[in-house]
Amino acid sequence: MSCAVSPLPTLPPSSPTPFTAVYVRPPPGLPPLRLPLPPSTPLSSLLESHIHPLLPPSIPLSLLRLHLPVSLSRNKDAVVGEEPLFLEVGVRVRGGKGGFGSQLRAAGGRMSSQKTSNNDSCRDLNGRRLATVKEAKRVAEYLETLPAREKAKREAAQAKLDALEKKISAPPAKRRFDDDKFVEESREMNEGVRNAVALGLKKRKKAKKSPSPDAESTAASSSASAAASSSKPSADAAEPATVAKVDAPPAVSASA
Predict the structure, then answer these.
(1) What is the pTM for the complete model shown?
(2) HEC profile for the chain?
(3) For position 90, what pLDDT does the model report?
């Protein structure tokens, strides 16, 4: 952003009124300013009366903001004074309603709640990763406790084998089943099954000895049909002979 800046006013060599040098740093892209002002000049009118006329006219006064030192910003009636003063002019940026700070605080709270203690990917002073160092420690502890674990394993296997041998060599214990109710129910069940089988066999024998009337009628009908079938072929055999006798031509005499 380039613009023509009016030359800075110079102090007259023989001026009886003292002036104070005010150094102003304008927005980016503009050269710095040096203003000789009387010590009684109020700071509240400094931007509008002395700084804004020296800036490009394309920058409106409503967008400019004068940054004062902390000691002077709290006093509304502050003046330039006799010591050199350093000021800065900034440009306001038009934006939304804000809330960016609250969003940052909320995001920071979420990040702090998700803190982790996993630093295995970091390195120690020797350049080794912490995960490698921890793994080496675990392997060393495992190798140290290996003989004790092997011994405990052998002892457990031997104790199991001894208990099995003792169980095999021990005489079998006699067991007695004392349940009178179960014995009585099983006896009644066996007797009922036995009686039912015997009754069924008796009924079957009686059925074989005395055939039923239906069986007798069936046998009579079967015998009648057999007799009819045996008499029919003889009649059929006599019929062709009769036919042959009737159909025979008359004999012719030799004299005729």
Answers:
(1) 0.32
(2) CCCCCCCCCCCCCCCCCCCEEEEEECCCCCCCEEEEECCCCEHHHHHHHHHHHHCCCCCCHHHEEEECCHHHHCCCCCECCCCCEEEEEEECCCCCCCCHHHHHHHHHHHHHHCCCCCCCCCECCCCCEHHHHHHHHHHHHHHHCHHHHHHHHHHHHHHHHHHHHHHHHCCCCCCCCCCHHHHHHHHHHHHHHHHHHHHHHHHHHHHHHCCCHHHHHHHHHHHHHHHHHHHHHHHHHHHHHHHHHHCCCCCCCCCC
(3) 85
